[in-house]
Automatic annotation (TrEMBL):
This is Mannosylglycerate hydrolase MGH1-like glycoside hydrolase domain-containing protein. Keywords: Glycosidase, Hydrolase. Belongs to the glycosyl hydrolase 63 family. It comes from Streptomyces afghaniensis 772. InterPro entries: 6-hairpin_glycosidase_sf, 6hp_glycosidase-like_sf, Glycoside_hydrolase_63, MGH1-like_GH.
C-alpha cells in the first residue's frame, strides 16, 4: 500500500480520500519507509521541504497538479497560495495550502538519517535539511507565540492534525460558518457522513481558512487561536532532534537543548491541569484552559525532561477510565471515553488513531513503562493487520473507519515491526495475515 501511494517523489496518504502530499503524514511515512528504502524516506522529506515558504512555514498540503481540482476540497484554487501568500513567500512553482501541521519533521529527519548514516552523509541529506528545519522552527516560535507565554498557537483545527476534536468546540463556536452553498465536501464521496465532521463544523473550518487567506496568511490574533499540548510537545521533541542533527553536522547544539527544556517548562506552566491529570488546550482569545480531555493532552509523555510525577500521572490517566488503555481499549482513543461529545466512529471525537498510539508507545517506553509499551505495541500491530491498515478504528471493537490501506498506518506498522523490543520473537506474526505494506 505504501508502494501504491508512491508518486515518484512522495507518498499520498490515501489515493481516494487524500490524493496529495500531507505534511505530518509524510513525516510519519518517512519514519516507516526508512526501514525498507532510506533513499525514498529521504526523498519524501526533501519533496515536502522543497515547498517551504520563505517565512519558514511548511504547508500542510503540497498539491499534485495532475489531480483534478474536484478530487479534494479545499483545492488549490481555494488556497490561492502563489497570489494570496506572495507576501509570506509562498513558492511560485508549486501550489500549497497556507496553514501548517504538527512539526514532526526534524524528529523524522533524524530517524531517517540513523537508518543509513552513510547514504545520508553521501547525499548531504542533513546538511541540506537542517537550515530548512531551523527556519520552520523559527517561524513557529517567532510568528505563532500568540499567547505571549512562549508556546505555539494553531490558528485552525486542521493545523493541529486532530481536526474534529471536541477540544475545538468552544473556540469554534465564535466562528460564523461559511454558507453551505459556498463549498462542496469531496470527503463525503469517500467516507460515511456519520464518521466525518458535521456540515456546521466544516462551514466553520472553511470560514477560518478563507479569512486567513484573505489576510495574506499573516499571523495574528483571530477568532481561533489555541495552544495545543501535542503540537507543542512535537515541536519540543523535534528541537531535541535538531540538537542531535546539529551535533552530527559539527554545529552548536546546546542552545537547542536549552530551548527544548524551556519549552517543556512553559508547557507545564501553561497547559498542565492537575485536576484533569493531564495537559489541556488553552483558548488564547478567552485566556483559559478548555475543559475537554483529548489524546493531545497525553502526547507530552514523549518528552524526556517531563517531571517524573507528571509522567506518572499521565500514565495513570492513560490507563484510567477516561482512556481505558489496557482495560476497555487496546489502542488509545482520541477523546475522553466519558466525555459528553464522545463518538466511537466520528473523526477525532473518539476513534483510536495509529499515529497517536505510536507516539504514546514511545512515551511509555521512554518513561520506563515497558510492559504497557509492549502491550500497546502488540495492540497496534494486531489492529493494523485486522483492520486492513485503517485510517482509524472504533476504540472498543477495533472496527475499521475512514480509509483503508492508509499511509501512516502501514508506515508506523513497519517501524514497530523493525524496532522489536528485546525478547519479542513474534513481532512479525503479530499482524493478522502478515505485513501488507
Amino acid at each position: 500500500m505504501l508502494e501504491a501511494g508512491w508518486t515518484g517523489t512522495s507518498t499520498v496518504p490515501s489515493r481516494g480520500l487524500y490524493p496529495h502530499q500531507w505534511s505530518w503524514d509524510s513525516a510519519f511515512i518517512a519514519i516507516g519507509l526508512r526501514h525498507v528504502s532510506p533513499l525514498r524516506a529521504q526523498t519524501e522529506l526533501e519533496t515536502l521541504l522543497a515547498a517551504q515558504w520563505a517565512d519558514g512555514r511548511i504547508p500542510h498540503i503540497v498539491f499534485n497538479p495532475s489531480v483534478p481540482l474536484d478530487a479534494y476540497f479545499p483545492s488549490p484554487d481555494f488556497w490561492r497560495s502563489s497570489t494570496a501568500g506572495r507576501a509570506a513567500g509562498a513558492p511560485r512553482t508549486v501550489q500549497t495550502s497556507g496553514i501548517v501541521q504538527p512539526p514532526v519533521h526534524a524528529l523524522a529527519a533524524w530517524l531517517v538519517h540513523l537508518a543509513d548514516p552513510g547514504l545520508s552523509r553521501a547525499r548531504g541529506f542533513l546538511t541540506r535539511l537542517y537550515p530548512r528545519l531551523a527556519a520552520w522552527h523559527r517561524y513557529l516560535l517567532h510568528r505563532r507565540d500568540l499567547g505571549g507565554g512562549g508556546l505555539v498557537s494553531v490558528v485552525h483545527p486542521w493545523e493541529q492534525g486532530m481536526d474534529n476534536s471536541p477540544c475545538w468546540d468552544r473556540p469554534l463556536s465564535r466562528v460564523t460558518p461559511a454558507p453551505a452553498r459556498s463549498f462542496r465536501r469531496a470527503d463525503l464521496d469517500h467516507g460515511s457522513p456519520e464518521d466525518r465532521p458535521t456540515d456546521l463544523d466544516y462551514g466553520r473550518y472553511v470560514r477560518l481558512a478563507s479569512d486567513y487567506r484573505d489576510r495574506g496568511y499573516a499571523d495574528g490574533p483571530g477568532d481561533f487561536a489555541v495552544e495545543d499540548p501535542a503540537f507543542n510537545a512535537l515541536l519540543i521533541a523535534s528541537e531535541y532532534a535538531l540538537a542531535r542533527i546539529a551535533r552530527e553536522l559539527g554545529a552548536a547544539a546546546s542552545a537547542r537543548q536549552d530551548r527544548a527544556e524551556r519549552l517543556t517548562t512553559a508547557l507545564v506552566e501553561r497547559l498542565w491541569e492537575p485536576s484533569a491529570g493531564m495537559f489541556l488546550c488553552r483558548d488564547v482569545r478567552a485566556g483559559e484552559l478548555i475543559p475537554e480531555r483529548g489524546v493531545s493532552g497525553l502526547v507530552p509523555l514523549l518528552l524526556p525532561s517531563l517531571p517524573r510525577d507528571l509522567a506518572a500521572t499521565l500514565v495513570r490517566t492513560l490507563c484510567g477510565p477516561h482512556f481505558g488503555l489496557g482495560g476497555t481499549t487496546r489502542l488509545v482513543p482520541s477523546y475522553d471515553l466519558l466525555g459528553e461529545a464522545f463518538d466511537p466512529h466520528r473523526y477525532w471525537r473518539g476513534p483510536a488513531w495509529f499515529n497517536t498510539s505510536w507516539l504514546l508507545e514511545r512515551g511509555l517506553r521512554l518513561h520506563g513503562e515497558r510492559g504497557r509499551a509492549d502491550a500497546l505495541r502488540r495492540g497496534i500491530l494486531h489492529t493494523a493487520g485486522a483492520s486492513d491498515f485503517a485510517e482509524y478504528v472504533d476504540p472498543y471493537t477495533a472496527q475499521a473507519c475512514g480509509a483503508t490501506g492508509f499511509g501512516w498506518t502501514a508506515a508506523l506498522t513497519l517501524d514497530l515491526l523493525h524496532d522489536r523490543p528485546a525478547g519479542d520473537r513474534n513481532g512479525v506474526t503479530a499482524i493478522k495475515g502478515g505485513h501488507r505494506g
